[in-house]
Request: fold
Amino acid sequence: MYGAPGFCGTIRLVGIAREVFGDALPVAERYAAFLAEAGVERGLIGPREADRLWERHLINCAVVSEAVPEEAQVVDIGSGAGLPGIVLAIVRPDLRITLLEPLLRRTTFLNECVELLGLRNVEVRRARAEDVSDEFAVDVATARAVAPLERLARWALPLLRPGGELLALKGERAGAELEEAEPVLKRFGVRSTELLQVGRGMVDPPTTLVRVVAGREAVVGRRQRAPRRAKGSRKRSS
Reply:
């Protein structure tokens, strides 16, 4: 269930999973099983990832909750297989989360996840972030492995309320991406930026986040977004 890193490694991983997910661990286990089966079959995650879902994906995403305020409204951009959005919904039922994903096969998978796991705090929306910026003013936008920060900021910042935060999960190039995105971030008038590491002692290496705090309403981003398309129907899962 928790991969095969060796007996001692498995025991430690089980303990960390219990600590991170608490009473929600059985829900996380159902999600992991669905990812390992349907997720792999439909090409949402690679077949080699099935044996390391917990340490590389679920726990890695769950610790992001350390940086998310209580009862926040969250948009997960390019949610894909639900990482980190589904995981955050499992570990933090106080959050209200919209999974924003443009591809039909992925939104189908996400809706099945929401139904299977009984997540009442999640809405799945098939759309591109740049097409719905006038519909959102959320507290937090999250994204994992979606795009370089320079491009991601253009999509995410118009979705935030003033003072809202983009939390982008990044790897070794986090600092370099932040420097490269500086001209775009200045144009959007962001309030502050920083690199954070969360999950120390639980994931190795710790999960790296780029936090970007929005300033005033991102007028520039709204003006630059693509021409608005006709709205699709909104589907709410429970």
